[in-house]
């Protein structure tokens, strides 16, 4: 090799040795400390230059590579290796810097000077890359570490070397060691093209300039290591194409990664974050940060808003609100509250002078509302008194903006300069939100504000957000709920009556125009006919009114035979409000009903509203009116159980036959009715059958064409099952099947709802977990069949849309684990709900045909929780089923080993139960003997010799009676039997033979003792049994 070529020269051996010794000495000194690295680099450069001058460039390169190779096996925590790596990096950087400096000063460089550096870097990288495929993880780590620091310190490399590096790094980015993958990420970041950006999804495969960026994006999304994802996130180019992938780490499972999005990524973007990030993504980032469960992430987001962004804007709070776009954003209220919490010094600087109240902007109005809410929530009374006006003044300001918005409706030029309709509506909304919690202890101010709000709600052009907040403000201003309902219904009736009067007025104007046309226009045939018809209609209407009045007079005076039906028939036809007006009335009534709690039986006005507005709306053919009618009907049903019972059929028909939006509303109503009234609305005389409603929910869950309805049905059913309103196992099984079904994999809202609700349900109560256990085996079997069909389906089907059976089985095991229950008790370890599930799985095991699925099932059975506290017979049954599977099924080695491990674990547990049972029996026997000995000792001490003789004499005289009485041994056995039977367990009955022998021995011993004593023991408790009775009971208990 190169070293050999050098050795062949006459004096080459000495020079070669000197080069090695010199380089080795530098490396030896450099590994001790970072302090002398600059001097060591100068020495290395001098050695290299002399070697090149004397023709020993290859020798220097060889020994340099050789010495660097020595540090490759060192572990990550070895500082010696890190120091040598830094030395190499600094040496290469110094050489590259000299070349760049020389080029910048227009020095003429010989080809040899540039060639020496390029040849050294090329051979060194190629030499080091040989270790990238090493089986030693330490070598791979050190190789990638060297490459990372080298790429940091060189400007350009040969194209062939670049391709070789990319090929090697693309392999190492999937290395099994996270530390190696991190270094690969560091290397790839140096190959990103910062000048050109493209859509990453549209990049052709042959564009190598973007290969590094594409690989890093895949790593930031899919790498299992949080450290690797963090390295990719912090080193990926932040442009329009890569930014969404970086910012989505705000939902990373790792706390540090989530925190760094706010403390590093968004902070480094500065003012650009307001312009470069899309508004909806910007809102999501703030919402995720402020609502994160981890305090560190939440504090990082607060610090970003209250310190970083506010300081960038020179402390201008209004400008910050402009950047946050408060009129559009839904998260600004939380953001400004976080700012007040983090920067309480700002509160004292906020002032609202008199001259600003009539010139509110969007930002000032929002700040007014947020500042008032924060002061009120934190009881900062001095600032409330200092900055906010009296209630009457506030009502005047509100009325000012309402007049600006609606006085010249339809004439934008007449609006106040600088205001548009959206701005004014936002300002009005902020003032109303503030008014809802305002201090109206002053009756004058309360009445003034109430008048303004009532007049505003009577406006037909009022937007829906203002209607909603206006109704709430009116509720807070009302004396009581009855007063509130009365005012709201008066407003609704006034709007409807005004519309009817407007229609009548328009008809009269048309009629007058027709009459004037008849009298003043030429006698055209058609015009004359039309005028004549109008005149005839007017005459008929006048005649009807006159006839009605005369009929009433006759009825009052008792003249004639006029019937009531004649009077009604003579009435003029009633006018109906227009569709637009009905929608306005229904909107106001729905927001009113949401705030009412009084039962319908105590509220005559709402019952009247039902007849005049809500019921006709439900029967209306216009979709928007019918939907609002159903919503109002549902809110009324919450106030009266009888009304709910009467309308359940209609609501069910809306779900079955209605359009998507009507189905959605009707489902919400049905769920709310069950939540309030429970099962009182079904299954009874005149009531809807609960099975019919279950079928409705079943059909909705199966219909993936309406994903929103699926979500509302799933969430509603989970709530009802959690509250034990619904307890049907089949419907619950449908719920779980919908969660795992591949047709619902694209419905993220549905999957998210199930992912949260099902574990909450299972872990909330033992009965809920038992329901899951009862249905889990059938669920698993159905899903196994479904997964098998999916794998054998057409090539166009997405076979990854469904979880594998082993993952599903693991999930079901987790849900049925009694250790996950909340409020656990001492009996939790004895719970057999998970064992029951395993027995059911082993029962259906024969119905599974695919060996692959069988293997997936059996390799996870050892995740079942086993405990000696559990029931012996249940554990024994699992062992029997596992033995049966081993004997009758053809299993591969992996499945057989898993099943053998389960059987071994079962045998260990069963043996422990038996040992505990034997030990317990011995303890009980010893306790009984001790008690018996104590009784005998006490009796002997109490009886005198004369008493004993008298007792013996009595026994001799009454020998016949004594023979019929129970003997002493029987009495002792009774005591022993009672003690044993009280604590016998099912497992002990299987050891009757062993225990029987010990009992016989004990009987003989106790009989011998009683014969020697010669007296009858005192009579025991009434529940004492004879030996025969004990044996019979023992046998029957064993049979059970």
TrEMBL record:
Family statement drawn from the similarity comment of this UniProt entry: Belongs to the CND3 (condensin subunit 3) family.
Cell location: Chromosome
Chain intervals with Acidic residues compositional bias: 1020-1033
Protein name from the UniProt record: YCG1-like protein
Chain intervals for the UniProt region annotation (Disordered): 508-542, 917-1040
Gene Ontology CC annotation, any one: condensin complex
Main location: nucleus
A Pfam entry, by short name: Cnd3
Coiled coil regions, renumbered to chain: none
Domain Nuclear condensin complex subunit 3 C-terminal: from-to ranges: 585-864
UniProt KW keywords: Cell cycle, Cell division, Chromosome, DNA condensation, Mitosis
Metal-binding found in the keyword field: no
Biased composition (Polar residues): 926-944, 953-980, 994-1009
GO BP, sorted A to Z: cell division; mitotic chromosome condensation
Superkingdom as given in the UniProt entry: Eukaryota
InterPro entries on file: ARM-like, ARM-type_fold, CND3, Cnd3_C
């Amino acid at each position: 090799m190169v070293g050999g070529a050098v050795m062949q020269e006459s004096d080459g051996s000495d020079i070669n040795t000197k080069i090695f010794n010199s380089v080795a000495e530098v490396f030896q000194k450099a590994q001790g400390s970072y302090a002398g690295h600059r001097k060591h680099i100068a020495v290395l450069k001098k050695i290299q230059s002399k070697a090149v001058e004397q023709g020993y460039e290859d020798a220097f390169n060889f020994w340099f590579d050789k010495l660097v190779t020595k540090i490759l096996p060192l572990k990550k925590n070895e500082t010696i290796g890190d120091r040598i790596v830094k030395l190499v990096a600094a040496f290469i950087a110094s050489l590259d810097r000299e070349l760049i400096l020389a080029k910048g000063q227009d020095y003429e460089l010989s080809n040899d000077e540039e060639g020496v550096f390029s040849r050294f870097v090329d051979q060194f990288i190629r030499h080091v890359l040989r270790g990238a495929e090493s089986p030693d993880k330490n070598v791979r780590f050190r190789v990638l570490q060297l490459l990372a620091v080298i790429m940091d310190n060189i400007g350009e490399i040969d194209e062939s070397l670049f391709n070789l590096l990319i090929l090697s790094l693309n392999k190492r980015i999937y290395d099994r060691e996270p530390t190696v993958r991190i270094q690969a990420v560091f290397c790839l970041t140096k190959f990103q093209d910062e000048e050109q950006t493209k859509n990453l999804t549209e990049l052709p495969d042959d564009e190598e300039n973007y290969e590094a960026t594409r690989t890093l994006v895949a790593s930031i999304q899919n790498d299992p290591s949080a450290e690797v994802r963090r390295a990719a996130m912090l080193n990926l180019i932040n442009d329009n194409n890569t930014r969404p992938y970086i910012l989505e780490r705000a939902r990373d499972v790792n706390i540090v990664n989530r925190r760094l999005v706010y403390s590093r990524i968004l902070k480094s973007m500065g003012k650009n974050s307001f312009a470069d990030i899309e508004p909806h993504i910007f809102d999501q980032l703030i919402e995720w940060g402020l609502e994160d469960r981890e305090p560190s992430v939440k504090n990082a987001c607060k610090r970003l808003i209250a310190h970083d962004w506010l300081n960038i804007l020179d402390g201008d709070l209004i400008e910050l609100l402009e950047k946050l776009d408060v009129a559009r954003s839904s998260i600004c209220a939380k953001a400004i509250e976080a700012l007040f919490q983090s920067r309480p010094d700002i509160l004292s600087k906020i002032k609202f002078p008199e001259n600003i109240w009539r010139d509110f902007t969007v930002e000032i109005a929002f700040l007014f509302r947020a500042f008032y809410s924060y002061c009120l929530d934190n009881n900062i009374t001095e600032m409330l008194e200092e900055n906010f006006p009296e209630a009457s003044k506030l009502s005047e300001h509100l009325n000012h903006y309402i007049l600006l918005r609606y006085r010249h409706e339809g004439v934008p030029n007449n609006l106040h300069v600088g205001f548009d309709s959206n701005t004014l509506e936002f300002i009005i909304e902020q003032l109303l939100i503030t008014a809802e919690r305002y201090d109206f202890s002053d009756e004058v101010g309360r009445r003034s504000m109430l008048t303004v709000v009532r007049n505003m709600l009577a406006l037909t052009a009022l937007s829906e957000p203002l209607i909603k907040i206006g109704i709430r403000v009116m509720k807070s201003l009302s004396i009581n709920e009855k007063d509130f309902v009365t005012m709201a219904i008066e407003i609704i009736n006034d709007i409807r009556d005004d519309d009817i009067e407007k229609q009548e007025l328009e008809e009269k104007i048309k009629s007058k125009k027709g009459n004037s046309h008849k009298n003043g226009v030429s006698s055209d045939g058609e015009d004359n006919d039309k005028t004549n018809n109008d005149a005839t209609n007017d005459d008929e209407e006048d005649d009807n009114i006159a006839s009605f009045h005369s009929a009433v007079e006759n009825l009052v005076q008792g003249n004639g035979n006029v019937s009531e039906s004649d009077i009604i028939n003579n009435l003029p036809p009633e006018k109906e409000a227009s569709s637009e007006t009905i929608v306005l009335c229904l909107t106001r009534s729905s927001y009113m009903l949401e705030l009412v709690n009084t039962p319908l039986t105590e509220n005559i006005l709402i019952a009247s509203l039902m007849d005049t507005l809500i019921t006709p709306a439900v029967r209306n053919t216009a979709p928007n009116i019918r939907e609002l009618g159903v919503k109002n009907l549902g809110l009324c049903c919450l106030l009266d159980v009888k009304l709910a019972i009467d309308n359940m059929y209609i609501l069910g028909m809306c779900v079955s036959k209605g359009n998507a939006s009507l189905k959605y509303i009707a489902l919400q109503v049905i769920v709310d009715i069950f939540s309030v009234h429970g099962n009182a609305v079904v299954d009874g005389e005149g009531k809807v059958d609960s099975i019919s409603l279950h079928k409705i929910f079943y059909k909705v869950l199966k219909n993936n064409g309406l994903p929103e309805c699926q979500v509302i049905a799933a969430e509603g059913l989970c709530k009802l099952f959690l509250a034990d309103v619904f307890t049907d196992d089949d419907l619950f099984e449908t719920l779980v099947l919908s969660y795992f079904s591949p047709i619902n994999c694209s419905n993220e809202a549905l999957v998210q709802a199930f992912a949260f609700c099902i574990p909450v349900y299972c872990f909330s109560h033992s009965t809920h977990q038992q329901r899951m256990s009862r249905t889990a085996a059938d669920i698993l079997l159905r899903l196994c069949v479904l997964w098998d069909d999916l794998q054998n389906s057409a090539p166009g089907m997405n076979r990854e849309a469904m979880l594998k059976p082993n993952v599903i089985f693991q999930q079901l095991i987790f849900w049925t684990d009694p250790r996950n229950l909340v409020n656990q008790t001492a009996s939790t370890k004895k719970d057999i709900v998970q064992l029951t599930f395993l027995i059911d799985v082993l029962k259906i095991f024969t119905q599974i045909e695919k060996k692959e699925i069988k293997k997936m099932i059996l390799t996870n059975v050892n995740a079942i929780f086993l405990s000696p506290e559990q029931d012996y017979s249940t554990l024994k049954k699992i062992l029997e089923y596992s033995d049966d599977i081993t004997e009758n099924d053809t299993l591969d080695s992996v499945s057989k080993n898993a099943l053998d491990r389960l059987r071994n674990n079962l045998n260990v547990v069963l043996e422990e139960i038996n040992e505990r049972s034997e030990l317990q029996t011995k303890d009980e026997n010893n306790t009984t003997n001790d008690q018996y000995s104590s009784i005998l000792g006490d009796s002997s001490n109490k009886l005198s010799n004369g008493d004993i003789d008298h007792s013996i004499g009595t026994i001799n005289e009454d020998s016949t009676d004594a023979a019929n009485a129970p003997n002493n041994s029987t009495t002792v056995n009774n005591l022993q039997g009672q003690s044993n039977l009280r604590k016998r367990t099912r497992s002990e009955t299987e050891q009757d033979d062993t225990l029987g022998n010990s009992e016989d021995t004990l009987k003989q011993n106790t009989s011998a003792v009683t014969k020697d004593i010669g007296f009858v023991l005192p009579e025991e408790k009434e529940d004492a049994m004879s030996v025969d009775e004990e044996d019979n009971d023992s046998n029957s208990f064993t049979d059970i």
